[in-house]
Automatic annotation (TrEMBL):
The species this protein was found in: Aureimonas phyllosphaerae
InterPro entries assigned: 6-hairpin_glycosidase_sf, 6hp_glycosidase-like_sf, GH15-like, Trehalase-like_N
Trehalase-like N-terminal domain: residues covered: 22-96
Alphabetized PANTHER family for the sequence: GLUCAN 1,4-ALPHA-GLUCOSIDASE (PTHR31616:SF0), TREHALASE (PTHR31616)
Gene3D superfamilies: 1.50.10.10
GO-annotated molecular function: hydrolase activity, hydrolyzing O-glycosyl compounds
GH15-like domain: residues covered: 241-541
Region feature Disordered, mapped onto this chain: 1-20
GO biological process: carbohydrate metabolic process
Name of the protein described by the UniProt record: GH15 family glucan-1,4-alpha-glucosidase
Length: 606
């Protein structure tokens, strides 16, 4: 049973002492194209894997409130905080107000003018605004569930910290006073008056030599990083009425693009629960074909061609190397079939904490539709497939035509293999797009007629087996009455005629909706929150079926309800009564569904 989440205190109000974990919506994200850090409204960074998103965490208090690692810069005494990203940037600013003054904390995972740095650089600049504010600084080293023993080492050049394979330096400006420096923690304080600026930063790497960088150069790179983000954002093609929301989601998706390979992570965290106290705590620091495909389409839709091309190339190469799997590591390898359980308390006692994902051993027909929809959108934008990629895609189409009758684990990666309606529609989608690509001369047409016949057989099978007259909807599994919110995507895919899709969409909205949001499928409401992407899919479906005014009104209501939670960073789910975040974050699927819906409402191409 889901432990009902109480309404969170106003995220802008934080008290000293921190009696328990921060609500997930109190976190925002920093990233550099390789790693992502979560920073709370109290100035504490509670999650950071170094040097990569899928590395073991150096800071992990979000999963272990009492003993986990963290890096905090928190005003002494009572304070309030208000945060926002700089416009068109992933540089975060938090303004702290105390009885004695105001100060701004400017934070970034730095890059250089030539792109990502060859080390990780977490920069935090404190700027005095009014009066005087004293911050306590604490860098507490995580022990990775007591599997490592961090220590400090001093030589003639610097004092370095060592946490497993990670070597790092704490770099501070002259006004920062270090009071304690030990193997487990470095503690200090800094006071800023109006106009004063101080810098606190970590420079880190993995089993590698490390530069001892000047604090002022690190501080200056915050603004270089901001400029780099703005330049990227200037290339985004979206001028509709939702440009601010689309830009923030695009920047969040950019954080999930793993620049060393071009892979797109589903999220930057592991084991943040879908229901507080429950067991639905998964590791999302991998590249799912589904999430990658949807993200590529979102990048194409907003004109981020370099990211779309890089991610699509990565995906095609994985298909050629390993075949059509559900997910891969960010380096492009197969995942181990078994998960590893980590001995940590978990967020608010939600266990187990996991590394790995059971989806690695599953098959989902949905990956076929995702792959071909991506390829179709790519060529629809005027781009070109090379002969090798075209041949790989033709082979995937053959595999889809051969296996679509088999049961699978479905889009929601369920343990029981069944004939899920959405899986069959995804197979139909794949073969419909394969035929279109063959007719356009984009992929070999040798098996075109077989694909066309299989496409038609799937449509006939779905209409004969998956429609319920009693429910007036396509059901999740033939012969049963449960509904699946992902069926809203069938509208975008162009499946069937308007009448049945309209009825299905209305049934989904009626039976899976709670407040403004929607559960994934029938029967999960006692175990998890509402899935944000499903709500966006249903709203987009309404728009595509001609109900644009209704869809726009509902979209505006959802955006208003979410407000500036996470400063625009979205999680996987929300508890519908309190809007408390649930699940891993930043969640790529939530952000890309927002982009697709906004683009559809604003009539953007592709």
């Amino acid at each position: 049973m889901l432990n009902r989440v109480k309404p969170a205190e106003d995220p802008g109000v934080v008290r000293p002492g921190r009696p328990g974990p921060l609500p997930l919506e109190n976190y925002s994200a920093l990233g550099d194209g390789r790693s992502v850090a979560l920073v709370g409204t109290d100035g504490s960074i509670d999650w950071w894997c170094v040097p990569n998103m899928n590395s073991a965490p150096m800071l992990d208090r979000v999963l272990d409130e009492k003993s986990g690692g963290f890096f905090s810069l928190t005003p002494v005494g009572d304070f309030t905080s208000h945060r926002a990203y700089r416009p068109d940037s992933n540089v975060l600013e938090t303004v702290f107000e105390t009885p004695h003054g105001r100060a701004r904390l400017v934070e970034a995972l730095n890059s250089g003018s030539g792109g990502r740095l060859p080390w990780c650089e977490l920069a935090r600049r404190i700027e005095g605004l009014e009066g005087e504010v004293t911050f306590e600084m604490r860098l507490v080293f995580g022990t990775q569930a007591d599997t490592i023993c961090p220590f400090l080492y001093t030589n003639a050049n610097a004092t370095t910290f060592h946490a497993g394979s990670v070597i790092g330096l704490l770099r501070v400006s002259d006004g920062v006073q270090i009071e304690e420096e030990g193997d487990s923690e470095i503690r200090g304080h800094v006071t800023v008056g109006a106009g004063a600026r101080e810098i606190v930063a970590i420079v880190a790497g993995e089993d590698e030599p490390l530069v001892v960088e000047d604090p002022e150069r690190i501080s200056a790179r915050i603004d270089v990083t901001d400029n780099e983000w703005r330049q990227w954002a200037n290339g985004v093609r979206f001028e509709g009425s939702y440009r601010a929301e689309v830009m923030r989601s695009a920047l969040a998706l950019k954080l999930l693009l793993y620049s060393p390979t071009g892979a797109i992570a589903a999220a930057a965290t592991t084991s943040l629960p879908e229901g507080i106290g429950g067991e639905k705590n998964y590791d999302y620091r991998y590249a799912w074909v589904r999430d990658a495909s949807y993200t590529i389409k979102a990048f194409l839709r907003i004109g981020a061609m370099a990211e779309a091309k890089g991610a699509f190339t990565w995906l095609i190469k994985r298909l050629a190397e390993h075949g059509a799997l559900v997910c891969y590591t960010l380096e492009g390898e197969r995942l181990p079939a078994e998960e590893t359980v980590i001995d940590l308390p978990g967020y608010r006692g939600s266990r187990p904490v996991r590394r790995g994902n059971q989806a690695a051993g599953q098959h989902q027909h949905g990956i076929y539709g995702d792959i071909f929809e991506t390829a179709a959108r790519f060529v629809a934008g005027g781009h070109v497939l090379d002969p090798r990629s075209a041949a790989v895609l033709a082979g995937v189409a053959d595999r889809c035509a051969e296996t679509w009758r088999q049961p699978d684990s479905g889009i929601w990666e369920l343990s029981e293999r069944r004939h899920y309606t959405m899986s069959k529609i995804s197979a139909w989608q794949a073969l419909a797009r394969a035929v279109e690509l063959a007719d356009g001369g984009h992929i070999p047409s040798t098996c075109r007629e077989r694909w066309a016949r299989s496409r038609d057989r799937i449509a006939e099978w779905v209409d004969a087996n998956c429609w319920s007259e009693r429910d007036q909807a396509y059901v999740m599994v033939p012969g049963e009455s449960g509904l699946d919110a992902s069926l809203a995507l069938a509208v975008r895919f162009g499946f069937d005629g308007r009448e049945r899709l309209e009825k299905t969409l209305r049934a989904l909205d009626k039976r899976l909706r709670k407040g403004l949001f929607h559960y994934r499928y029938h029967g999960v409401e006692d175990h998890e929150g509402c899935f944000l992407a499903c709500t966006f899919w249903i709203i987009e479906g309404l728009a595509l079926l001609g109900h644009r005014d209704e869809a726009r009104l509902r979209f505006d209501e959802v955006l208003s309800a979410l407000g500036d939670r996470g400063a625009g960073i979205l999680a996987e789910m929300v508890y519908p009564e309190t809007l408390a975040y649930l699940g891993n974050m930043p969640q790529g699927l939530s952000h890309l569904a927002l982009i697709q819906t906004a683009a559809t409402l604003d009539g953007c191409a592709l």
